[in-house]
Amino acid sequence: MSTQDWEERVAAAWATFDDYAEEDAADFRAVVDALVAELPDEAPLGLFERACAWDSTGHSDKAVPLYREALARGLDGYRGRRAKIQLSSSLRNMGQAQEGVTLLTPELDAPSDELDDAVRACLALCLSSLGRDREGLSLVLGALAPHLPRYQRSMANYARLLVAPES
Question: In whole angstroms, what is the distance from residue 93 CA to residue 60 CA?
Fold first, then answer.
C-alpha cells in the first residue's frame, strides 16, 4: 500500500460523506474503519480518522478518547492541529469547554497555516460556552478582519478593544 494511494482513498471516502443519510452513519464509519485497518494497529493517523468519523456522525463521546489517543501517540503537524480543533469542539459539545480553551489557547501562537481561523472560531465557541463572549467575539472579529474588502484596520482595532483593559 502506498501512502499516497491510501490518502487518496481516505479523501475519496470523505468526499462521499454527505451522500450518507443520518441512519446510514454506521455504514460510513465502516468505510473509514476498513481504510484504517490497512494501517498498523493503533497508528495515530488511524485513530484520528476513526475519531473524525465518530465526530462527524454525531458521537463526540466516542471521538474524544480517539482524538486524545492519536495526539498522545504523536499525531502532529496539520492533522495534529486539526485533532486539537476537533477535540476542543467535541469537548465543548460535551460540556467541557474549559478543557477546549486550555487545548486551543497555545494554538494562537503556533506557526500560521490555513487552520488559524478555525482555531479562533472554535476557541470563540468554547469561550462563549464559558460566558466569556467578549473574548470570543474579539477572536472572531480578529479572524474576520483580514478577509473584509474594507474596514480591516477598524475591525482589527475593535476586536482588540473588546478585550483591552479599561483605562
Answer: 7
Q: Which three cell numbers stand for residue 90?
A: 467535541
**Contact at 8 Å (CB) between 123 and 108?**
yes
Q: How many angstroms separate the CA atoms of 137 and 163, rounded?
A: 9
Average confidence (pLDDT) over 51-65: 97
Alpha-carbon distance of 153 to 145, in angstroms, equals 7
3 vs 2, which has greater pLDDT? Answer: 3
pTM for this entry:
0.92
Distance, CA of 41 to CA of 125 (rounded, Å): 34
Matching residue, cell 465502516: 30
> How far from the centroid of its chain's Cα atoms is residue 99's Cα?
14
Residue closest to 88 by CA, chosen among 131, 57, 55: 55
CA dihedral sign of residues 38, 40, 45, 50: positive
Q: What one-letter code names the amino acid at 63?
A: A
pLDDT digits 0-9 by tens, 72-94: 999 999 999 999 999 999 999 99
